[in-house]
């Protein structure tokens, strides 16, 4: 992993991250080692997003 942009050890909360831009952001930041906290107004969508990211 490129140390220039490593997010290892960082926790990131992304609101509205179950779909759209928020989900893309969660996916991208997760690839750089961040622990992503998924948050959405609908619990079911949030759970589906978590499943997709794993």
Helix vs. strand class: alpha+beta
Low-confidence stretches: none
Q: Helix fraction?
A: 40-55%
Biggest β-sheet: count, sense, barrel? Answer: 2 strands, parallel
Residue fraction in strands? 15-25%
- Cα-atom radius of gyration: 11 Å
The coarse overall form would be elongated
The count of domains is 1
According to DSSP, the number of beta strands is 2
Round the mean pLDDT to the nearest integer and report it.
92
Protein name: Gluconate 5-dehydrogenase domain protein
Organism: Escherichia coli 97.0246
Secondary-structure topology with pairs:
Blueprint: E1 11-15, H1 20-31, E2 35-39, H2 43-53
Parallel strand pairs: 1-2
Descriptive labels:
alpha+beta, 2 helices, SDR_fam
Give a written overview of the molecule.
This protein has 54 residues and is an alpha+beta fold. The chain has one domain. It contains 2 helices and 2 strands. It has helices at residues 20-31, 43-53, and strands at 11-15, 35-39. It has a two-stranded parallel sheet. Helix 1 links the parallel strand 1 and strand 2 (35-39). The longest helix is centred in the middle third of the chain and has 12 residues, at 20-31. The protein is elongated.
What is shown here, in short?
The protein is an alpha+beta fold and 54 residues long.
